[in-house]
Amino acid sequence: MDAEMERNVDAEKEMREWCVALPKVELHAHLNGSVRNSTLLELAKQLAEKGIIVFEDVKDVIMKNGRSLPECFKLFDLFHILTTDHDTVTRIAKEVVEDFAAENVVYLEIRTTPKNNEAKGMTKRSYMNAVIKGLKAAEAVDVVLFDSNSRTNDTLTCTPTIELDGDTKKKRIYVRLLLSIDRRETTLAALDTVNLALEMKDQGVIGIDLSGNPVVGEWETYLPALQHAKELGIPITIHCGEVANRKEIQAVLDFCPQRLGHVCCLNDVEWKKLKSLMIPVEICLTSNVMTGGAPSLELHHFADLYNAKHPLSLCTDDCGLFSTSLSNEYFLVAATFGLSKPELFHLAQEAVQYIFADENVKKSLKEVFKDAGKRLTVLSEIGAPN
Ligand SMILES: CNc1ncnc2c1ncn2[C@@H]1O[C@H](COP(=O)(O)O)[C@@H](O)[C@H]1O
Ligand SMILES: [Zn+2]
């Protein structure tokens, strides 16, 4: 390796480490898409021992790199076979929150589809209870799950701290839950999910998501449930424009949810409308490039939205499925679009504005960033050349 290559390797390593140290806000992460491959393989082995699946077949599917949109949804069907019993749901929830905290995600909105599964004695409610059990079981990190003003003894827990240098103290992470409506669901099932979100609002559930295979289902099926959530004052985020469904993109923009995911396949008119509505966008670079929603990293619509100062936040979507991490998504933005450290810091900090949790949490997070800003010494670099 010549001297210049060596310098580039060192610079990349340093930037990657900086992106890990940066406190981050994750607003778009699906629970079952965020499971470690090692856990999926372990679960597959256990099911193979019981004769339910053939391990080698499943291993090939998990380890194969194909991640087109249809392949992703085939994989989700497989993941759900592996993960959907109460104990496993608890395990993956625990691991996922620990993994996000380990890379200095300080606020996490994790979304998941509550599932009925008669054979496993599972209801949407018992599924969610299993998720919450997992979040509470995460011993390696300090998970703050409840609204700070709903429990008196949380005042102390909300004192902002963040560990940037070493594991001497537990990392603290605020976690909130979004309940996903799967596009395969009926109107009644979608309404059940919204009612469950209302019932569980004191247990960390703060919003509703619409997701699932974008070529399946009709907007009119979910609209009554989304309308119901809106009337109840529950914040909503919607997967929008993963495919070029003109009628639905128009309807979603007219519905005007609190946030949108992806916004890949918008035409000029829709693009203009999105920008005038200023709806914050959850940007998922790796996911969009892998599933074909964006032609390449370089041509990703992040650049257009960023230059237009549109509200946005970087997210992973499915960090397990796409072998990425939120730190890596920040690194990709630096490497692809040339953002400097102060610009990356500002991007991470701005995401606090778009969280669904209350003002107390926002206030705490602002303190976290203020403190981290000093430690990362980025503030002194603002205005300096890259
Ligand atoms: C790649 N782009 C995507 N587009 C749309 N929906 C997606 C998605 N990635 C994940 N999901 C949704 O999240 C579920 C898995 O997590 P949970 O079982 O809910 O925890 C998938 O079944 C799908 O409905
Ligand atoms: Zn998603």
Instruction: List low-confidence stretches.
Output: 148-160, 382-386
Instruction: Bin the strand percentage.
Output: 5-15%
The end-to-end distance, rounded to whole angstroms, is 24 Å
Helix content: 40-55%
Q: Tally of extended strands?
A: 9
Task: Provide structural commentary.
- This protein is an alpha/beta fold and 386 residues long.
- It has helices at residues 3-21, 37-49, 55-63, 69-83, 86-102, 124-137, 154-157, 187-199, 219-232, 246-255, 268-277, 285-291, 302-307, 326-337, 341-350, 359-375, and strands at residues 24-30, 105-112, 141-144, 171-182, 205-211, 236-240, 259-262, 281-283, 312-314.
- Strand 5 (205-211), helix 9 (219-232) and strand 6 (236-240) form a beta-alpha-beta unit.
- Helix 2 runs antiparallel to helix 3 (55-63) and helix 8 runs parallel beside helix 9 (219-232).
- The longest helix has 19 residues, at 3-21.
- It is globular.
- The two termini are 24 Å apart.
- The site of zinc ion has 6 residues, from strand 1.
- Residues 23-367 form the Adenosine deaminase domain.
- One of its GO terms (biological process) is nucleotide metabolic process.
